[in-house]
């Protein structure tokens, strides 16, 4: 049977960064609570002319620049911070990238899980038509109210994932563990631009979904715990992955050392929560930084509040190191422009979506920008007009 899986991953993030040391100082919190207690160092903040579309398009552009458009007949855009209730964000990306018209585009939503649902749909499309390639884009801006416990767990970023037959990076295995439970742990009603969250409940709901998805994976004939060499997780904050993993290790009666997850934390500690993109950013870090993965099985756990969890496994393709983009994500992270707490809070206050006509200041240096709203419709454009 032809291997189907992930051929390439590209990452984008916001133009700005807020260091959690600065937030800790402002709030009179011990910085160790952020660095150790929740396992985060900073979070990305979008410029006024950035949003999920511009970040998603930047990540997708990298994929198209590397692989061309041939065979791409489907673009799946997953987000929980959508910019329109009707039009799929992917249609804006389709226009910005000049993709062919013979492409279907749709948006998917189930909190942070949507990107994994998109990858599952993509795997199905490629299984039926192995000559096709599916472009999955996962992009989000995580926004909570300021002065809440969730404030340090905000973030912004996007991942573009190319799903193909005979992939360069990972063959995804057919068995998957899934888990759904109707829980009010985190949600964002239509009249709000920030999420509502019951933080403690969300942590237990995540753990329940992880253990439940594991049990389902076993029931589906998936691999044994000892056959999995590395794990990556959806990481709302990196300590969450450790908490959940400790529970799973107890559940299956296996030893677990927190350090086993550390490489997958590298980028997420800097971007903050990127909702749908989080797990793919964790995966990109693992593939970029771990040299020992040729032919090894890894597991990927996706969680979306509300709640849906899914546990996928895959075999890393021998030779994956020749295809990784070492240094690319680090340079993106290092290029971010730091904000003071006051400047970040000003951007936060102005960040709510609007259908009022506006012009956005030119700030971002990413390939595409949100120009503003004209005639009630959002307008996007390349950042440099040549
Ligand atoms: P909090 O107020 O920071 O909680 O809120 P805390 O006071 O319990 O402190 C957190 C940890 O810091 C604790 O460790 C403290 O002991 C430790 P733990 O007991 O958890 O191991 N700590 C310190 N450590 C070192 N030095 C110190 C120190 N002080 C304290 N000086 C909470 C935490 C998660 C509730 C909050 O950040 C929040 O509400 N976040 C948003 C919700 C969230 O991210 N939930 C995660 C699961 S849900 C999910 O993943 C879905 C999501 O991504 C959205 C989606 O799917 O759409 C959110």
TrEMBL record:
<dbReference type="InterPro" id="IPR013746">
    <property type="entry name" value="HMG_CoA_synt_C_dom"/>
</dbReference>
<feature type="active site" description="Acyl-thioester intermediate">
    <location>
        <position position="112"/>
    </location>
</feature>
<feature type="binding site">
    <location>
        <position position="30"/>
    </location>
    <ligand>
        <name>(3S)-3-hydroxy-3-methylglutaryl-CoA</name>
    </ligand>
</feature>
<feature type="domain" description="Hydroxymethylglutaryl-coenzyme A synthase N-terminal">
    <location>
        <begin position="4"/>
        <end position="165"/>
    </location>
</feature>
<dbReference type="InterPro" id="IPR013528">
    <property type="entry name" value="HMG_CoA_synth_N"/>
</dbReference>
<feature type="active site" description="Proton donor/acceptor">
    <location>
        <position position="80"/>
    </location>
</feature>
<feature type="binding site">
    <location>
        <position position="243"/>
    </location>
    <ligand>
        <name>(3S)-3-hydroxy-3-methylglutaryl-CoA</name>
    </ligand>
</feature>
<feature type="domain" description="Hydroxymethylglutaryl-coenzyme A synthase C-terminal">
    <location>
        <begin position="246"/>
        <end position="322"/>
    </location>
</feature>
<feature type="active site" description="Proton donor/acceptor">
    <location>
        <position position="234"/>
    </location>
</feature>
<dbReference type="InterPro" id="IPR011554">
    <property type="entry name" value="HMG_CoA_synthase_prok"/>
</dbReference>
<comment type="similarity">
    <text>Belongs to the thiolase-like superfamily. HMG-CoA synthase family.</text>
</comment>
<feature type="binding site">
    <location>
        <position position="144"/>
    </location>
    <ligand>
        <name>(3S)-3-hydroxy-3-methylglutaryl-CoA</name>
    </ligand>
</feature>
<feature type="binding site">
    <location>
        <position position="273"/>
    </location>
    <ligand>
        <name>(3S)-3-hydroxy-3-methylglutaryl-CoA</name>
    </ligand>
</feature>
<protein>
    <submittedName>
        <fullName>3-hydroxy-3-methylglutaryl-CoA synthase</fullName>
    </submittedName>
</protein>
<dbReference type="Pfam" id="PF01154">
    <property type="entry name" value="HMG_CoA_synt_N"/>
</dbReference>
<dbReference type="Pfam" id="PF08540">
    <property type="entry name" value="HMG_CoA_synt_C"/>
</dbReference>
<dbReference type="InterPro" id="IPR016039">
    <property type="entry name" value="Thiolase-like"/>
</dbReference>
<dbReference type="GO" id="GO:0006084">
    <property type="term" value="P:acetyl-CoA metabolic process"/>
</dbReference>
<dbReference type="GO" id="GO:0004421">
    <property type="term" value="F:hydroxymethylglutaryl-CoA synthase activity"/>
</dbReference>
<keyword id="KW-0808">Transferase</keyword>
